[in-house]
Amino acid sequence: MFLASAQLHIPDGFLSLLIAAFAWLLALIAVAAAVRRAQATLDERLVPLAGVMAAFIFAGQMINFPVAGGTSGHLIGATLAAIVLGPWLGILVMTAVIALQALLFQDGGLVAMGANILVMGVIPALVGYGLYRLVAGRGRRVALLGAGIAAWLSVVAAALLTALFLGFSNTVSFAIVVPVMLGIHALIGLGEALITVGALSFIRAARPQLLERSAAVAGRGWIAGGLVVTLLVVLLSPFASSFPDGLEWVAGKTGFLANAQDAPYELLPDYTIPLLGETALSTIAAGLLGALLVAVVSLLAARALRSRSAERSH
Amino acid sequence: MLPTAAFDRYLHGESLIHRLDPRVKLVVTMLFIVSNLLLPDGAWLAFLAAGGFLLLGARLAHLPPGYLLRRSVLALPFALAAVTVLFSQTGQPLWAFRLGAWTLAVSDAGLLRFASILARSLLSVQMAILLTVTTSFPDLMHGLRHLRVPGVLVAIIGFMYRYLFVLADEASRLLRARAARSAAPAAGQAGGSVIWRARVAGSMVGQLFLRSYERNERVYNAMLARGYRGQLLTMNPHVMTARDWLAGLAAVLLLAAIQLAGRLAA
To answer: Which of A151, A228, B135, B193 has the most Cβ atoms closer than 10 angstroms to its Cβ?
Structure first.
């Protein structure tokens, strides 16, 4: 139940006015651009297409699968929308979904809606679509694997952005909520990745021309955009840990901080690299190293898959 | 699943609030939420006054007592996240306890902050519910149009609302078909691995997508056949009356008074 309701919709009252206004400003720019671009390519087709597709996302969120112990996973759909419909239409569709959920079900706030549009609409378009575009033309297996990674990453990036919004509003404790949000959504993201890949492989088999059309509507700038946002997320995280935090305050008092450092599983203790000391620079470097590791692993996996599919075609 | 009752929370009624122009209600709701955000932490008098404002609205709309409060549990998952603020504020420690290897201390500043966040979110969610239960969805859309929200966006949301029910039915048919095909032994695991189950769900989503996409094509052709040229028309003029202006003005003045109370008391 908690998994099913964890859709990252921030209600009103949890974001400070400054953060909410800033998020609205960014969201308005993105949505205005999306309206213009989508109208330019679709003209009067836009309204029925986006409207029905938004309803599809909403209905698609009802489709679930049992995971274990009474919990079930279900689709969020933002990455799927961005990949199948293209990023501009994807942003519009998710904006409609978020607006309707806020207006009709109070699922997500009205003043906080700008933040929700960024989290659920713009992030999946950038991270999800951008990373998918990177591998889209390279054979079925690579494209599907890329879509899965893109879906997972966009859920995790969305969770991080939500945690950052809440943290900067001084509504939550960074030290507790950032790792918890990332942990939960790393799991939710797995379900999202699996469903997205399943849906995409079905659509590829049934109507492949639909996917080719969506790949043609947006430029390669989205790839750069996706990579930049992934990088930005990494660069933002040091601020998340630089605030004075009660947990660390208590930890310092009780001497727990000294014990916490030598946990056996900590590869990068406290998200810093020992050599560089405890500076923001060190945190950034640690984040970059982590992102690089993920990138190298996915690249190697993609290369291995590609060579295998090439062997088979000989 | 989504119960049918959850789809439309609009309650029919003939009250002052129901008859109010939707754009007045939208603007006052937004101002109310912003006003709550602007109130300083611990401005209890002002929060109480805002609660009174809400109660007045619910009373004028003839809502059953406690209705808004019952519906406002939606913000609870986020309140769970906000609990962590108890430990993150520097202040006088009130109460410390051990949680495994961690010692957590609740500070007075943390408690003040948490209670204020909870008050703000409860008030804001209830106001949004008041807006929804007293304004029908088409009226809400017209209100957005009049407030200069881009017509395309409003039309998309309106379209989504129209096809929500149709596609939700389509999704339940898919789910029912899956349930009919799937037998589960009384004990033990049924079906394949989690990954296999997720892929089945993925195929269902893909199928739902294609059905929706084809429906969109049919809908578009039907609209073209009926003379659609990119604009949705409405027959409701939605003219602001003197009563709408007065109600809006009164609400704004009340909110200003609440702000003043919050600032002076703090």
So the answer is: A151
